[in-house]
Amino acid sequence: MRLSPKVGQLAINTIETYEKICLRLLSGELDSISAYDEFYKQKELRKMRGIGPAFYTKLIFFFGNQTGVIMDQWTARSTNLLLDGSVVKLNSTKCVDPKNRQQVYAKYLEFISELKTILSIESVSKTEELIFSCSHIHPTVINRLGKHHQACSAWRKYVAENT
After folding, report:
1. How many CA atoms within 13 Å lie on the side-chain side of 68?
2. Which of 57, 39, 56, 51 is nearest to 112 (CA)?
3. Of the candidates 135, 138, 141, 139, the residue with the CA atom closest to the CA atom of residue 154
4. Which residues lie across from 96 on neighbouring strands?
5. Which residues does 53 contact at the CB level (< 8 Å), separation at least 6?
6. For 123-150, how does the pLDDT look when each residue is reduced to its tens digit (9 = 90+)?
7. What are the two backbone dihedrals, phi and then psi, of residue 75, each rounded to the nearest 5 degrees?
8. 23-53 residue pLDDT tens
9. Is pLDDT above 60 for 2?
10. Which residues contact 51 (CB under 8 A, 6 or more apart)?
């Protein structure tokens, strides 16, 4: 979410819409792609405001069964860079465009699953964490990670410089 009181207020004012979807995720009634489709439809109908794909994929991950992973600007930019294409559409500020439909999310999940297999990583969530990486510029991250920061942030720096 953008850091502004107006956006936060829009999200709070429509929270009941995404709470309902989250409850369906918790109960196992929705799989990740169906949940994405539900969020997308509610966003299109303007019944859910102030949040977009980066935020609702976080909801899908944390309220679901962890097979649907987060698709934010860093994972989307990494995916597009690794595939040398534009799988996930980004807007002018390099954030995930709200017009990405569930087919895009499904392709993204398929890519993460393939990458998991190719790299022999134990889960899709660990694979998503790998391409998300960590900030190469924020002092708090640098201080917290100390000597490990350079290795952790190398991919993020590469993505920032090449997308």
Report:
1. 29
2. 57
3. 135
4. 90
5. 36, 39, 40, 71, 96, 97, 98, 100, 105
6. 999 999 888 877 666 667 566 666 656 6
7. -75, -35
8. 999 999 999 999 999 999 999 999 999 899 9
9. no
10. 1, 11, 18, 43
Q: Do residues 66 and 123 lie in contact, with contact meaning Cβ atoms separated by under 8 Å?
A: yes
The residue length of the chain stands at 163
Contact 124, 60 (CB under 8 A): no
Residue with tokens 């303007």: 46
CA distances from 138 to 9, 103, 133 (A): 27, 34, 13
Q: Can you read off the two tokens belonging to residue 85?
A: 């294409």
Task: Convert 121-145 into a string of H (helix), E (strand) and C (coil).
Answer: CCCHHHHHHHHHCCCCCCHHHHHHH
- Is the pLDDT higher at 136 or at 20? 20
What is d(CA 120, CA 98) in angstroms, rounded to the nearest whole number? Answer: 32
What DSSP string describes the chain?
--S-HHHHHHHHHTHHHHHHHHHHHHTT-S-HHHHHHHHHHHHHTTSS-S--HHHHHHHHHHHTTS-SPP--HHHHHHHHHHTTS-SS-B-TTSSBPTT--HHHHHHHHHHHHHHHHHHT-S-HHHHHHHHH---SS-HHHHHHHGGGHHHHHHHHHHHHHH-
